[in-house]
Specification:
Number of domains: 2
Distance between the termini: 31 Å
CATH superfamily of the largest domain: Ribonuclease Z/Hydroxyacylglutathione hydrolase-like
Helix content: 10-25%
Number of helices: 7
CATH class of the largest domain: Alpha Beta
Radius of gyration: 21 Å
Number of strands: 19
Length: 343
């Protein structure tokens, strides 16, 4: 898409603004990641606090639509429109396109152009490489809407390879024990598997049954996960020395009792916070996040070069304060319907 210059008289709040249902684009008559079912929705990615069932029409990347069909039974009744990165479509008076967000498979930034003005709705994003999805692409714009999940200066996520190294060293140190690794089913699970493969771990990785369908979907979309299998198919398997991935809640569930002296590991950006790690029962906290940390958030504001920034979904005040300090007109958007995922 060509870069446009905003008209000075157009207030972006007159055509894109929060409502109880979500962020509404008036000249296009659609919502972005609405909190409830709406006549027309533009979906940035497949996590449950952004992609909800029941929309009459849904525009998303092909991968996000596939994720929604996997998760929601009513998707076949929805009029689905797939839009790939770099393509655009006109909805009402608004040109809508997608750019990679680097968050999970199919995640996108919604790029809206109207009357010479461009607004980018980032959805959720991260800046570091992810072997399961294309990297975040900075898009020059007049207004940038950013998440703020880890928008405090204390959040500096360590390297992914270093955290995976911790896990593999623990596996080597305790060969008689099972490592139960808590991961979010969509995005985190598949990314951790790929990081393990890139670190040279070529053994079978066992999976909780609740992770299987989305792993199959990732494989269908070209993400090679190697040898993975559901725990339920194990025959005469002791799981000693094995890595078993599961939802974080399963670590404390009866399901975990079958494993050999399990070591509980949890993968999340919140594992930087000791109280959170204790709350999750993480003996081995692994700081692996699918969201931008503080340096990545602040660098992104500089990279996109937007004179206006709207902040939502997290620690809004700190990022607003930082943006104003570097001359950006910033404000908190206070969108409804956002929930904290396993980040």
């Amino acid at each position: 898409m060509a870069i446009t210059t905003a008209t000075e008289t157009l207030n972006p709040r007159t055509w894109l603004y929060p409502t109880p249902r979500g962020l509404y684009c008036e000249p296009g008559d659609f919502y972005i990641d609405p909190a409830f079912a709406v006549p027309r929705a533009v979906i940035t990615h497949g996590h449950g606090d952004h992609a909800r069932p029941g929309h009459r029409k849904a525009l998303a990347t092909p991968e996000t639509l596939a994720i929604m069909r996997t998760r929601f039974q009513d998707m076949p009744d929805t009029e689905q429109q797939a839009l790939r990165y770099g393509e655009s479509v006109r909805i009402g008076e608004v040109e809508v396109g997608f750019a990679p967000a680097g968050h999970i498979l199919g995640s996108a930034q919604a790029v809206l152009a109207y009357r010479g003005q461009r607004i980018v709705v980032s959805g959720d994003y991260k800046r570091r490489p992810d072997p399961t999805c294309p990297p975040f692409e900075p898009v020059p714009c007049d207004v940038f809407i950013t998440e703020a999940t880890f928008a405090l200066p204390v959040f500096h996520h360590p390297s992914d390879t270093g955290e995976i190294g911790k896990l593999l060293r623990s596996v080597a140190t305790f060969p008689e024990r099972t490592h139960l690794v808590g991961v979010y089913a969509l995005g985190k699970c598949q990314r951790v598997i790929r990081l393990l493969r890139e670190a040279g771990y070529d053994k079978r990785i066992w999976l909780h049954g609740g992770l299987m369908s989305l792993c199959r979907l990732y494989q269908e979309h070209g993400v090679d996960l190697g040898d993975v299998a559901p725990v339920s198919e194990a025959i005469l398997e002791t799981f000693k020395g094995a890595i078993v991935l599961c939802p974080p809640s399963a670590i404390a569930d009866r399901w975990s009792r079958r494993f050999a002296e399990p070591i509980a590991a949890v993968c999340s950006g919140w594992m930087n916070v000791r109280a959170r790690a204790r709350q999750r029962g993480a003996e081995l906290p692994l700081v692996i996040s699918d969201h931008a940390d503080w340096p990545e958030l602040t660098q992104t504001l500089k990279d996109v070069g937007a004179p206006r920034v709207w902040v939502t979904h997290g620690r809004e005040e700190a990022l607003v304060h930082y943006a104003r300090g570097i001359g950006i007109d910033a404000e908190a958007l206070h969108l409804a319907g956002r929930e904290e995922e396993d980040s």
